[in-house]
Each structure stands twice: as C-alpha cells, then as structure tokens.
C-alpha cells in the first residue's frame, strides 16, 4: 500500500504580509518550501511527495528540484486549504492511486518538520483503523476575550491539544470527508474526519514543528533549522 505526502502550497500568506507567498520566502539559504519538501522526501517510508500549488503560481518552476526523484507537482490549488487538499486528493485518485493508500497532508508552511518525527508517526499509525495527526498538549493558560479584548473567562486546558501536521488518513475516506464536510470550520483534515463520527489518534508532535504564519515565525524557523543542522553536524 502506497504512502504519499501531500503538501498544500497554494496559500497567499496574508498574515505574513510579504510581497510574495510565504512558502517562497528565503529561509536559511533556501526557500521555505524547499526545506519542507526536503524533509518529507528524506522519509524512506514515503513513496511520493506531491505538492499542490496554485494554477497561477509562477515561482515553483524557478526553483531547482533536481535530486528529488519522488517529487511531483499538481497545479490544482483551491481557494481554501481544504479545497487545495481536496483537489490534490481527487487528482491522486484519478491518477490511479489505491483508495486505501495512506496520505500524510503536511503544510508547506511547516519547514522545520523532522523526518524522524514523520517516520515515527507512520510506524504508530500504519495499522490504525482511522489515522491521526501530530499535535502537542496546550501548555499555556487559556483566556476567552470579550469584544474589547478584555478577559471574559479562563478556560480549562485539560485534554486540549494544538493540532499540527502531518495529518495521516486514507485517500478515499479523507477525500469523501472533505467533500461532505467542506466549510469554514474544516481547518484541518482531522476536523473533516471527526465530522464523519470517527476519532483520529493524537500522536505527540514537537514544538519545533511550527507553522510559519507571522513575520517573526521566519526568525524562529531559522533558529530551529540552524539548531537542527548543528546537531546533525555533531553526530
Ligand atoms: N487556498 C489555500 C490556502 C492555504 N494553503 C496552504 O495551506 C497551508 C497552511 O495554511 P496557512 O498557514 O493558513 O497559509 P496561508 O493561507 O498562505 O496564510 P494566510 O492564512 O495568512 O493567508 C500553507 O502551506 C498554505 O500554502 C493552500 O494550499 N491553499
Ligand atoms: C492544519 C493546521 O496546520 C493545523 O494547525 C492549521 O489549521 C492550518 O492553518 P490555517 O491558518 O488554519 O490555514
């Protein structure tokens, strides 16, 4: 059974506020998306890394993808993350990928993911009946805000986790769940699967696996990648 990494990369990066989409911003001598692709491509268990870009993307072809033998690009991004993922899954299915293949959906905007973490996730979930996601338990006290940005309440954080990616589900059930659940509340793959009444597994992720969202995240990502590089060089 195939295992595919599917990277939605068709966003505009509005919160980053840069002149170009954040996945193409420079980070430690490459672009954000090059780090993400390299990390997923380094996972031996993954058969193909498939990137979903916007149909009007002009930057992908300017990068050098030599050496990534298992990399494929699809120009079928949609107007939301869920739509981009859904379109990518439909293209994989139309291409003949078996319905029960595992798909690991991973944000192109999470360039610090470690291949070892992904390999561990695959080992933990490959016999799971539903699939699951990387996530980390909430570590801070949670406040609900009123309209004036004053604290309205303190919320219990027991049992709350922050969802990360990859999110690992089987191709056809995930596609069907996204099609039937599509809407603004579907902000990740797990939420679509949950809507079908199933409970995805939470697999411990890492605080290093941050999503580059705001301008300061690029600096954090560069520190994380530099730290990872220093560790590798010591081995
Ligand atoms: N229509 C979209 C929107 C998002 N994404 C991708 O989904 C991932 C996570 O989304 P997010 O961080 O929200 O990215 P953006 O939508 O680009 O950012 P923003 O919401 O700030 O505009 C990113 O890799 C992004 O490229 C996508 O493929 N298609
Ligand atoms: C899928 C995700 O990375 C889980 O944390 C996240 O929801 C994607 O970001 P967005 O801002 O909701 O598009």
From TrEMBL:
Q: Which domain of life is it from?
A: Bacteria
Query: Which residues bear the site annotation Positions MEP for the nucleophilic attack?
Result: 157, 211
Per the UniProt entry, the Enzyme Commission number(s) are 2.7.7.60
In this chain's numbering, which residues are marked as the site (Transition state stabilizer)?
Answer: 15, 22
What pathway is this protein said to act in by its record?
A: Isoprenoid biosynthesis; isopentenyl diphosphate biosynthesis via DXP pathway; isopentenyl diphosphate from 1-deoxy-D-xylulose 5-phosphate: step 2/6
Can you name this protein? 2-C-methyl-D-erythritol 4-phosphate cytidylyltransferase
Q: Which organism is it from?
A: Silvimonas iriomotensis
Q: Which InterPro entries match?
A: IspD (IPR001228), IspD/TarI (IPR034683), IspD/TarI_cytidylyltransf_bact (IPR050088), ISPD_synthase_CS (IPR018294), Nucleotide-diphossugar_trans (IPR029044)
So what does this one do? Answer: Catalyzes the formation of 4-diphosphocytidyl-2-C-methyl-D-erythritol from CTP and 2-C-methyl-D-erythritol 4-phosphate (MEP).
Alphabetically ordered keywords of this record: Isoprene biosynthesis, Nucleotidyltransferase, Transferase
């Amino acid at each position: 059974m195939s295992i595919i990494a599917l990277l939605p990369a068709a966003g505009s990066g509005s919160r980053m506020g840069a002149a170009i989409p954040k996945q193409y911003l420079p980070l430690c001598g490459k672009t954000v998306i090059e780090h993400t692709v390299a990390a997923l491509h380094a996972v031996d268990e993954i058969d193909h890394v498939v990137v979903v870009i916007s149909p009007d993307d002009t930057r992908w072809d300017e990068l050098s993808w030599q050496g990534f033998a298992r990399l494929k690009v699809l120009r079928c991004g949609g107007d939301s993350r869920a739509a981009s993922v859904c379109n990518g899954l439909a293209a994989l299915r139309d291409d003949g990928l078996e319905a029960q293949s595992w798909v690991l959906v991973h944000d192109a905007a999470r360039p610090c993911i470690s291949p070892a973490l992904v390999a561990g996730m695959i080992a933990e979930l490959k016999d799971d009946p539903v699939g699951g996601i990387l996530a980390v338990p909430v570590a801070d006290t949670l406040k609900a805000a009123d309209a004036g940005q004053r604290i309205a309440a303190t919320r219990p954080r027991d049992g709350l986790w922050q969802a990360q990616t990859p999110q690992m589900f089987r191709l056809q059930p995930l596609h069907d769940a996204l099609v039937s659940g599509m809407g603004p509340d579907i902000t990740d793959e797990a939420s679509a699967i949950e809507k079908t009444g199933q409970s995805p597994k939470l697999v411990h992720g890492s605080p290093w696996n941050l999503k580059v969202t705001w301008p300061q995240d690029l600096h954090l990502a560069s520190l994380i990648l530099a730290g990872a590089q220093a560790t590798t060089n010591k081995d």
